[in-house]
Specification:
alpha/beta; Rossmann fold; 5 helices; binds flavin mononucleotide
Length: about 180
């Protein structure tokens, strides 16, 4: 069975990002995937401490014993990743960036991907209706995930000031979930 890890970068459990992530999850499940979800707005999740332990060849996971500890095992056999975040002050949330920095162990000492070959989808929501407004910030996030040896298969974007995403976008999110598995 395929395994998909969903990272929720919005602090709002019932917001727009959550609704679109739920559609991606439904699509992946419909295609036969197991879903593992991490809510990044967790008080037991710390930022990277810069200890460089994960630069040692034998340390393929972060040494911190916190909410993300099981995530490194999940990464080993996951087929796909979904990162959802609203735009806060022109980029993804602090919660989402915390995850990206905690993915340093997903690169070895030589910066080669330790867990390559996964597909990923990004889900970005924003107040601005201009879909292209934050392209550089979103591209930076996608670039870091690409550096881990992961391939972007779809990007779901919604600019609607926190309102409900339209039905066609929800369908696109569902289809993105299916693409992660097929
Ligand atoms: C602190 C904060 C900063 C924000 N900054 C931006 C921004 O720079 N550009 C923008 O278009 N929307 C911005 N927004 C609006 C959110 O991106 C938007 O409402 C988003 O859909 C919220 O997603 P959620 O419902 O999943 O939490 C901001 C919202 C907050 C709370």
């Amino acid at each position: 069975m395929s395994k998909v890890i969903i990272f929720q970068g919005s602090p709002k459990k019932k917001g727009t990002t959550a609704a679109l992530l739920a559609e991606v999850a439904k699509g992946a499940q419909a295609a036969g995937a197991e879903i593992v979800e991490y809510d990044l707005n967790n008080k037991e999740l710390r930022g990277c401490q810069g200890c460089m332990s994960c630069r040692k060849p034998e340390n393929t996971a972060c040494v911190q014993n916190d909410y993300l500890k099981p995530m490194y095992d999940d990464l080993k056999d996951a087929d796909a990743i979904v990162l959802g975040s609203p735009i806060y002050m022109g980029t993804v949330t602090a919660q989402a960036w915390t995850l990206i920095q905690r993915l340093y162990p997903a690169m070895g000492p030589d910066f080669a991907p330790r867990y390559p070959g996964k597909k990923f989808v990004t889900v970005i929501t924003q107040g601005s209706p201009n879909a292209a407004e934050y392209t550089p910030a979103v591209a930076a996030v996608q670039g870091f995930l690409g550096n881990l040896g992961w391939t972007l298969v779809d990007h779901i974007a919604w600019g609607g000031a926190g309102g409900e995403a339209p039905e066609d976008l929800k369908q696109a999110a569902f289809a993105a979930g299916q693409k992660l598995v097929s």
